[in-house]
């Protein structure tokens, strides 16, 4: 598995997102099976594992901690604070310094470790100055409980304010062939400041894998049932993108998910996607994307075809969007 740098932090080119394991897209998953999946990812070269206290809540961190305990010092664990999980309000933003410290102590305990490699603020909290957030994380870094600071779904102004107090190693945001907003909103800032980028949902919550079609419907427990891009109308309108990815994947002797990930990896060397999965076969596909190469000419050709496809539907529901920093 090739390695990449997120600021000063070295990670595998493809990481593993550990949110779907707690049933985010429906389903109930066996703890032993998910722990085995995480260990398989590590054994196949993945060193970068993404979780958060709010995933479950707590369950994802517990499983990641148990899975990686035997190899802790060779794995990079990223987790997040920023919602009121410790206060029993997991949908409410909370980045007050006292909350950050409580959240970190809980994460350390669940992750079975004495340090967190990459600690993200999960969402920017407009009620707490970014300088206070960055300062608190800086204190935790000096205390040895955290090694690197990250931000999730932060806008350029927030990134700059945070970085001025405590250097930011990585920024995480949704990014995929069908959602490219970070390119125009934060990429220039990341390049300037030497900050890495971690795309989540890099295969479009499954849409870019070719396993979803215009007749697909989602159960209430599946997060996609609430998202504008997964309405029947949007699915039908966006199917030409699936066809484009399928054609390019065949051209490169790959699977559509692999091509979608390879496209992301080809953007910049400081980008490391974290596709989530609960399926060992899909894990192997995702890891294989790191070996797929796209030339500059191929990237240009694909982007021209992609730009010609009108896409329908926003990535987030109104409540979720209200908690995303501009």
TrEMBL record:
**This protein's superkingdom?**
Bacteria
Task: Outline the extent of the NADP-dependent oxidoreductase domain.
Answer: 27-303
Q: Which GO terms describe its cellular component?
A: cytoplasm
Key words of the record: Oxidoreductase
For molecular function, the Gene Ontology terms on record are: oxidoreductase activity
SUPFAM superfamilies, A to Z: NAD(P)-linked oxidoreductase
**Any Pfam family:** Aldo_ket_red
PANTHER family recorded for this chain?
AFLATOXIN B1 ALDEHYDE REDUCTASE (PTHR43625), ALDO-KETO REDUCTASE (PTHR43625:SF77)
Report the protein name in the record: Aldo/keto reductase
């Amino acid at each position: 598995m090739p390695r990449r740098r997120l600021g000063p932090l070295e990670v595998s080119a493809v990481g593993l997102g550990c949110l779907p394991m707690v049933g985010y897209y429906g389903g109930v998953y066996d703890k032993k099976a998910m722990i085995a999946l995480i260990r398989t990812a590590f054994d196949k070269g993945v060193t970068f594992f993404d979780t958060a206290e709010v995933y479950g809540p707590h369950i994802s961190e517990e499983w990641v901690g148990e899975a990686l305990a035997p190899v802790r010092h060779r794995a990079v664990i990223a987790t997040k604070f920023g919602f009121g999980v410790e206060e029993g309000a997991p949908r409410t933003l909370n980045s007050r310094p006292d909350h950050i410290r409580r959240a970190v102590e809980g994460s350390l305990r669940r992750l079975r470790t004495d340090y967190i490699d990459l600690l993200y603020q999960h969402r920017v909290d407009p009620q707490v100055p970014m300088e206070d957030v960055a300062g608190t994380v800086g204190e935790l870094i000096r205390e040895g409980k955290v090694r690197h600071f990250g931000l999730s779904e932060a806008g350029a102004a927030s990134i700059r304010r945070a970085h001025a107090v405590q250097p930011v190693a990585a920024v995480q945001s949704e990014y995929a062939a069908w959602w490219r907003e970070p390119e125009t909103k934060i990429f220039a800032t990341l390049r300037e400041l030497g900050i890495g980028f971690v795309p989540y949902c890099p295969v479009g919550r499954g849409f870019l894998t070719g396993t979803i079609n215009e007749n697909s419907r989602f159960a209430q427990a599946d997060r996609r049932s609430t998202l504008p891009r997964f309405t029947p109308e949007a699915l039908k309108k966006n199917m030409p993108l699936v066809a484009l990815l399928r054609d390019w994947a065949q051209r490169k002797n790959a699977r559509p998910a692999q091509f979608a990930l390879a496209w992301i990896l080809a953007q910049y060397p400081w980008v490391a996607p974290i596709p989530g999965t609960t399926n060992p076969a899909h894990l192997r596909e995702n890891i294989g994307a790191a070996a797929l190469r796209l030339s500059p000419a191929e990237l240009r050709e694909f982007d021209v075809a992609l730009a010609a496809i009108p896409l329908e539907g926003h990535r987030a529901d109104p409540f979720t969007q209200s908690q995303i920093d501009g």
